């Protein structure tokens, strides 16, 4: 039989798989000699066995827990049934990965009607004792018996209102006794059983509840959101209680070793005097800043600073520390690597490297690639902001960024509206774990209560979602679905704009501008490009996109979509002239005019990109995409082209397709209209010649799309190359061009070795390849994909993260075949997935040379590529 | 250096690769001691070297040919330059596979102005000698110098008309001398050179022409049509001349050892007295039946019967023999396995087995699977025939079958009209190899001249195309594009109907009925099912299709397309009610009514199929296929369903798809509308219960289409199975059903092992799999696929013959994965390719259990499956 329970002094920080993050760190800190209340941890395996045994404790586990309770009683000199030294414990979950607010905690476990007086005598404080007991009943009732919290809270509020109390600390013994009676009645009513009096019964009930909470809905949502496997289980930590609520020499708080929003070095946090456990995190009372502790309890503050510093150095990362002060003595209850905003993550990582605590590789691994675009969060445009109406700046900047959206007052509505395509902002008094579904779909989160470590703040920072908390001048009426701030009333569906960096809220929508990051960001990106094996290129063709992308230092352009250049009115006209031409002469005349436009296009691109490589994809969409759309356009065009309307319509009917995605497009067009690609090749080469004369070394990479049959590539390539060679001879010059193929048809992957004979490079088009491998049209799948996700038929959207078993397998087959035929062949990816970190890891592992993504995703891809190179050397 | 030239006594029948079919058989017959004019064969490799060396003879080859000419002179005691014993030779092509009419022949080679008198003296016949010389100039002029035949023919016709001659034999010496002068002038005019007088120059010119003819257009078309590789080359046979045109004791003919139309045993053929070489085949003179030879030249006839019998027994197959009689002595010039109609092929194969000449396996291998549907050629319906107007029954039944179509008078027009989708019938005085492109696209071929072995007859039989030749009361004016028969005039584009079995031609179109084959056909099919490893099922759901298919004894139904049952008006109405239902109640009500229809459908199928297995595919098409099509239907439906037109249109807009092929269909429907599949499963099981009560052992195989993700299959299967099990319990009975998946999405192939966990069988849907693997929509590809074929980008249509490298590879991956997970899993194919012989060989090799095809293709598939089992044991 495996050991299932570990005393804190039996473990260490490396045992997170078994002890969970919290348990492993409690063990580590115990080893370091820190002031940690004694206790033990029940392993994650015990949790999984329990869940797999239909939620039943094995006899082995029961015995092992009982024996550790005995040891704890010995070590503390306290006992559940002692008449002088009463053992009370906390029971907390602790999974391998931190899941804030997702799992449940019970404090003060062991109290009952019979031993209340022991605690009261020991502490000399009946108010405290009764408060502890009512908390136990409340937490136990909620977590173990599943009684909604508001039953208890409403009862407490009723007493406070009746007596005119403002704070919980105003209640006296009699009040608490009444409340305890009421709480017990609530408990009985819901459970048809009395609140359990036997401490061991309480203990096993609490352990069972923690185990089961692994599978509650919130936990499942969080795991899905964060790609945490379902079979890890949670550990349970049983720990001797220490009390922050024994009076004004006591308190409880949360401290970060650096500022989690900015990364600034120095203790950052909040605490509450005379409070217990969840009071700070729950955001019920607005806590004080940690700096105030230096004046309130200077010795404790000094201890906290010293221990924080020690922990950060020990873990080589910014720490998120929970502490409790009991009658002037500091106890550390938990430490973990602190969640931080993306901006803070960059600053902290660079600082830690500069301070010599970690290596560049470690720094790169510390930053989640997904979070990169958070530091590049667009901000409000300065002009637009000038005209905007400020509603309030009273809140706290809990998570940076800027967003506009429609306000909603409950998570369900927010979720529903977001699914319908709206940009939503969640407005709540405070958030709780029940709100998670609504939070993940929101552009921004705003609360009227709570501090920088409240649930809303922590979750928002974790998600990179813009957030303002503690907006005290915001009166929210969740039932009436409206909010008032400074005489302005907001109704559900109204637009507001939120600046999470400045903690400002504006009325209406405000235009945004992209950001290009700050110093630490650029330092990290330099390191990333240094370590990465995969080059990162961008998909771009417009001057503005190229300029924006160049600020991220891409290795080149991986995809110029030439069709994007055909839609300006004067070009579209020529394209239509080409499509409707009655003879080869007209057709060539139209192509010649398009050629001149394309010449300018490519010159601009070369000029911007200088000597960086550029892949230009030849025309891809079906011709019917260029047709007129309505009767007015049709009759206008008929006049222009000297055709009858019925001639026009006949040709349009001819071009119509049942499944355009599978139709006459890509290189198939060039089989029917060889001059189309020849024209484009001519523009590419002629513009390169012009740039060469200006002293630029342009190396155009010409890409033929939608190849699925060997002869498509060989014949089109032969025509293009013959045309180019003739041009070069005519111009008595030389251009270092190459001709490759876009692999996006499943069949192409199986013949990649044959295709390699006629291609200088391949670029995988993951969009079409995914569409064809799944038989999903992106245009249509949107209609049923929600049902797929809701019914968990699809876990990850294959258009956002590479499907490794299907699409990935095809790419792997192609890579192997291509390399077999041509070991040095350049291989890349230019679909949406080129900017997805998990997909990039796969592309690194199978040995591609580059990925190409939208300019804005370039830095994410660069970081992901570096991380893949570090992780999969 | 390799040997490139072989004397006839150096080879044998197995050397077809080197000597070609004709050369190998000449060598074999020489070995058997048959009366074969002496000669030698230049190898196929020599041809390829010549073609690869830019059509130049290597010095080695020149020397080798010269040395064999010397040997031939020694063996015959004749010489090119002898003044008494003149050596004249024939030069004929002979590729590995017989290519009738495709390659060219030159006779009488060696004659010149100087040695004419030697031949004349030797034979005592100046008319014959001059006829031989003019033939040489004509053939050499045509084949080597490329002068169109009609120049020579017109010249000959002019003389005949002027002199009032009817036959060539009417011409005297003076006439021939005039013609020779004219022919030489024609030659000089076209070549700007005199007709070559030097025999060796003639010989090398002829060999070069034969070599080059390998690449002429006709040969290329024929090879493409018959899948003959381009790199085989042709051999050249140089053979001492024997003369059929020396007088009435001479002649030339073609004989089959059995009737090539019916298979009837006994010599069958035609001959011409006093004629040479190509006269019979060219159809210029109408020849006499071979039976007449028994009275004309009894000894020769007896020899021919004896030698034919010997050759058939030697080759174990029906022979096609060319012979020449020179002054009463029989020479065999060629033998080969005779081309035959499909009907004859079956009869001959069965006879040869019964006669003990070949085994059943050999019999099965002798019949081309593609030809099976020729014996099942539809015939005219008896009723329709009664009302039809007979135009003529004067022709010869050259190739059986029946067809209606529009008449055209030249190959080019026929080809053009056929490509435009018309059914065409080619009407010609006689056909020549130049007509091949028009012949292959015709439903029937009719000629006014020529016999049963004429070009038209041989080619039509080879292609299984219905053909009537020698229709002497048909006056065809090819220039005016009209034909007269029995006072009726036919213009281009008029419909006629041709019965190739009865040699009857009717006016207009006549309705057709399918045929189910005759005795020998059924014998062969019994043997085929005995030898095949693959079961053959049919795709069918209508009672009439099922009944028709059952006559071919299929192993079951491999595909019931349930959607075909939804289009009858009363069902379509319920389907629309389902689609437009506003609530679950209306939806269920509609489904319940559809359930009742489906119950009857399945009962009928079970009743017809008895205990044979039936695979029923659940609904596959997108819902928009069931929508109303025009405003009238829409407003009618709105009334029926008590909806406004705009409500209807909104829902229709909702259902519209950009790429329906990649849209919301197949099992994706069941994710959104689970009750749809449950309803179908219920109908399948309830009808099975009813049939069980009637004593039938029904084993329905329920197939879920379009699976691409594991969870699709697991969740839908779970729902269906739960529903069925509840039904069975409710009915206190048991049905042996199974649930499988249709694999038609590329991704499904990669996860076949995972899918196998939740499937009892797989059936590959090759249509969709091919569409997705190529990214081709069958609905749209038609528009550009012609260009693909014309430019040889596509060699085989992947929708007609499996693409082994792409689609086949995916299927192979899936088969291996499925068998790994479940070694005994039943695997089949139910797309169009299930009836294609070449694809069936592949499916046999990768170890599928069955193929399923349209009822009419079942016998082809059965034979192909047997052949695959014999060939790939």
TrEMBL record, chains A, B:
<dbReference type="InterPro" id="IPR018274">
    <property type="entry name" value="PEP_util_AS"/>
</dbReference>
<feature type="binding site">
    <location>
        <position position="768"/>
    </location>
    <ligand>
        <name>Mg(2+)</name>
    </ligand>
</feature>
<keyword id="KW-0547">Nucleotide-binding</keyword>
<keyword id="KW-0460">Magnesium</keyword>
<comment type="similarity">
    <text>Belongs to the PEP-utilizing enzyme family.</text>
</comment>
<dbReference type="InterPro" id="IPR002192">
    <property type="entry name" value="PPDK_AMP/ATP-bd"/>
</dbReference>
<dbReference type="InterPro" id="IPR013815">
    <property type="entry name" value="ATP_grasp_subdomain_1"/>
</dbReference>
<dbReference type="GO" id="GO:0050242">
    <property type="term" value="F:pyruvate, phosphate dikinase activity"/>
</dbReference>
<dbReference type="GO" id="GO:0016301">
    <property type="term" value="F:kinase activity"/>
</dbReference>
<feature type="binding site">
    <location>
        <position position="768"/>
    </location>
    <ligand>
        <name>substrate</name>
    </ligand>
</feature>
<feature type="binding site">
    <location>
        <position position="767"/>
    </location>
    <ligand>
        <name>substrate</name>
    </ligand>
</feature>
<dbReference type="InterPro" id="IPR008279">
    <property type="entry name" value="PEP-util_enz_mobile_dom"/>
</dbReference>
<feature type="binding site">
    <location>
        <position position="744"/>
    </location>
    <ligand>
        <name>substrate</name>
    </ligand>
</feature>
<dbReference type="InterPro" id="IPR000121">
    <property type="entry name" value="PEP_util_C"/>
</dbReference>
<dbReference type="InterPro" id="IPR036637">
    <property type="entry name" value="Phosphohistidine_dom_sf"/>
</dbReference>
<dbReference type="GO" id="GO:0005524">
    <property type="term" value="F:ATP binding"/>
</dbReference>
<feature type="binding site">
    <location>
        <position position="617"/>
    </location>
    <ligand>
        <name>substrate</name>
    </ligand>
</feature>
<dbReference type="InterPro" id="IPR023151">
    <property type="entry name" value="PEP_util_CS"/>
</dbReference>
<keyword id="KW-0175">Coiled coil</keyword>
<dbReference type="Pfam" id="PF00391">
    <property type="entry name" value="PEP-utilizers"/>
</dbReference>
<feature type="binding site">
    <location>
        <position position="765"/>
    </location>
    <ligand>
        <name>substrate</name>
    </ligand>
</feature>
<keyword id="KW-0479">Metal-binding</keyword>
<feature type="domain" description="PEP-utilising enzyme C-terminal">
    <location>
        <begin position="518"/>
        <end position="868"/>
    </location>
</feature>
<feature type="domain" description="Pyruvate phosphate dikinase AMP/ATP-binding">
    <location>
        <begin position="55"/>
        <end position="290"/>
    </location>
</feature>
<dbReference type="Pfam" id="PF02896">
    <property type="entry name" value="PEP-utilizers_C"/>
</dbReference>
<feature type="active site" description="Tele-phosphohistidine intermediate">
    <location>
        <position position="455"/>
    </location>
</feature>
<feature type="domain" description="PEP-utilising enzyme mobile">
    <location>
        <begin position="422"/>
        <end position="502"/>
    </location>
</feature>
<keyword id="KW-0067">ATP-binding</keyword>
<feature type="binding site">
    <location>
        <position position="744"/>
    </location>
    <ligand>
        <name>Mg(2+)</name>
    </ligand>
</feature>
<keyword id="KW-0418">Kinase</keyword>
<dbReference type="InterPro" id="IPR010121">
    <property type="entry name" value="Pyruvate_phosphate_dikinase"/>
</dbReference>
<keyword id="KW-0808">Transferase</keyword>
<dbReference type="GO" id="GO:0046872">
    <property type="term" value="F:metal ion binding"/>
</dbReference>
<feature type="binding site">
    <location>
        <position position="561"/>
    </location>
    <ligand>
        <name>substrate</name>
    </ligand>
</feature>
<feature type="domain" description="Pyruvate phosphate dikinase AMP/ATP-binding">
    <location>
        <begin position="302"/>
        <end position="345"/>
    </location>
</feature>
<keyword id="KW-0670">Pyruvate</keyword>
<feature type="coiled-coil region">
    <location>
        <begin position="631"/>
        <end position="658"/>
    </location>
</feature>
<dbReference type="InterPro" id="IPR040442">
    <property type="entry name" value="Pyrv_kinase-like_dom_sf"/>
</dbReference>
<feature type="binding site">
    <location>
        <position position="766"/>
    </location>
    <ligand>
        <name>substrate</name>
    </ligand>
</feature>
<dbReference type="InterPro" id="IPR015813">
    <property type="entry name" value="Pyrv/PenolPyrv_kinase-like_dom"/>
</dbReference>
<feature type="active site" description="Proton donor">
    <location>
        <position position="830"/>
    </location>
</feature>
<dbReference type="Pfam" id="PF01326">
    <property type="entry name" value="PPDK_N"/>
</dbReference>
């Amino acid at each position: 039989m495996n050991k299932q329970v570990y005393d804190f002094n039996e473990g260490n920080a490396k045992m997170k798989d078994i002890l969970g993050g919290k348990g492993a760190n409690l063990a580590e800190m115990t080893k370091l000699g820190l002031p940690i209340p004694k206790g033990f941890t029940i392993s994650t395996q015990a949790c999984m066995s329990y869940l797999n045994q239909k939620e039943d404790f094995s006899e082995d586990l029961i015995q092992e827990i009982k024996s550790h309770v005995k040891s704890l009683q010995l070590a503390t000199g306290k006992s559940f049934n002692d008449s002088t030294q009463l053992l009370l414990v906390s029971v907390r979950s602790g999974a391998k990965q931190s899941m804030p607010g997702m799992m449940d905690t019970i404090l003060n476990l062991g109290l009952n009607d019979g031993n209340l007086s022991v605690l009261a005598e020991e502490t000399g404080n009946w108010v405290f004792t009764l408060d502890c007991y009512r908390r136990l009943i409340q937490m136990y009732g909620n977590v173990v018996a599943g009684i909604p919290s508001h039953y208890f809270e409403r009862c407490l509020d009723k007493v406070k209102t009746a007596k005119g109390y403002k704070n919980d600390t105003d209640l006296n013994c009699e009040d608490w006794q009444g409340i305890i009676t009421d709480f017990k009645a609530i408990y009985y009513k819901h459970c048809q059983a009395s609140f359990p009096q036997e401490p061991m019964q309480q203990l096993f009930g609490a352990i069972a509840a923690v185990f089961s909470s692994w599978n509650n809905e919130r936990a499942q949502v969080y795991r899905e959101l964060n790609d945490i496997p379902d079979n890890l289980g949670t550990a349970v930590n049983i720990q001797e209680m220490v009390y922050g609520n024994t009076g004004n020499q006591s308190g409880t708080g949360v401290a970060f070793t650096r500022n989690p929003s900015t990364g600034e070095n120095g203790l950052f946090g909040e605490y509450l005097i005379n409070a217990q456990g969840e009071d700070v995190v729950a955001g019920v009372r607005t806590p004080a800043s940690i700096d105030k502790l230096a004046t309130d309890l200077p010795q404790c503050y000094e201890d906290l600073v010293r221990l924080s510093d020690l922990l950060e150095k020990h873990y080589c990362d910014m720490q998120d520390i929970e502490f409790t002060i009991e009658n002037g003595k500091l106890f550390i209850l938990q430490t973990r690597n602190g969640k931080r905003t993306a901006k803070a993550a960059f600053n902290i990582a660079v600082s830690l490297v500069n301070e010599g605590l970690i290596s560049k590789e470690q720094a790169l691994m510390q930053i989640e690639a997904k979070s990169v675009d958070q530091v590049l969060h667009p901000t409000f445009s300065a002009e637009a902001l000038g005209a905007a109406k400020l509603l309030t700046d009273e809140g706290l900047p809990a998570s940076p960024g800027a967003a506009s959206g429609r306000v909603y007052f409950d998570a369900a509505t927010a979720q529903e509206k977001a699914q319908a395509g709206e940009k939503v902002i969640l407005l709540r008094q405070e958030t709780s774990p029940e709100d998670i579904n609504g939070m993940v779909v929101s552009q921004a989160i705003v609360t009227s209560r709570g501090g920088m470590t409240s649930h809303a703040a922590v979750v928002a920072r974790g998600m990179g979602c813009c957030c303002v908390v503690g907006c005290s001048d915001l009166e929210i009426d969740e039932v009436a679905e409206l909010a008032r701030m400074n005489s302005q009333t907001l109704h559900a569906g109204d637009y507001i704009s939120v600046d999470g960096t400045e903690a400002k809220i504006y009325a209406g929508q405000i235009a945004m501008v992209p950001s290009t990051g700050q110093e630490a960001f650029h330092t990290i990106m330099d390191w990333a490009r240094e370590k990465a094996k995969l080059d990162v290129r961008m998909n771009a063709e417009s001057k503005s996109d190229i300029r924006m992308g160049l600020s991220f230092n891409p290795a080149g352009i991986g995809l110029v979509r030439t069709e994007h250049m055909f839609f300006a009115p004067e070009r579209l006209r020529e394209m239509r002239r080409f499509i409707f031409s009655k003879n080869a002469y007209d057709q060539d005349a139209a192509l010649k005019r398009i050629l001149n436009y394309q010449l300018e296009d490519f010159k601009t691109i070369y000029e911007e990109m200088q000597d960086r490589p550029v892949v230009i994809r030849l025309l891809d969409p079906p011709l019917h995409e260029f047709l007129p759309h309505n009767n007015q356009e049709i009759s206008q065009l008929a006049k222009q082209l000297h055709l009858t309307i019925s001639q026009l319509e006949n040709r349009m009917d001819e071009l119509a397709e049942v499944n355009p995605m599978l139709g006459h497009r890509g290189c198939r067009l060039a089989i029917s209209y060889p001059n189309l690609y020849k024209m484009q090749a001519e523009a590419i080469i002629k513009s390169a010649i012009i740039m060469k004369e200006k002293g630029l070394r342009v190396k155009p990479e010409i890409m033929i799309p939608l190849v699925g049959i060997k002869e498509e590539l060989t014949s089109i390539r032969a025509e293009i190359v013959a045309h180019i060679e003739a041009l070069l001879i005519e111009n008595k010059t030389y251009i270092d061009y190459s001709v490759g193929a876009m692999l996006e048809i499943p069949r192409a992957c199986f013949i990649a070795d044959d295709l390699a004979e006629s291609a200088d490079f391949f670029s995988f088009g993951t969009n079409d390849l995914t569409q064809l491998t799944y038989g999903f049209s992106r245009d249509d799948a949107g209609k049923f994909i929600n049902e797929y996700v809701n019914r968990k038929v699809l876990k990850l959207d294959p258009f956002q993260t590479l499907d490794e078993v299907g699409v990935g397998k095809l790419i792997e087959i192609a890579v192997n075949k291509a390399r077999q035929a041509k070991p040095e062949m350049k291989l890349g990816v230019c679909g949406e997935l080129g900017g997805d970190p998990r997909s990039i890891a796969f592309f690194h592992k199978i040995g591609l040379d580059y990925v190409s993504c939208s300019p804005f995703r370039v830095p994410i891809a660069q970081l992901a590529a570096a991380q893949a190179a570090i992780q999969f050397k």
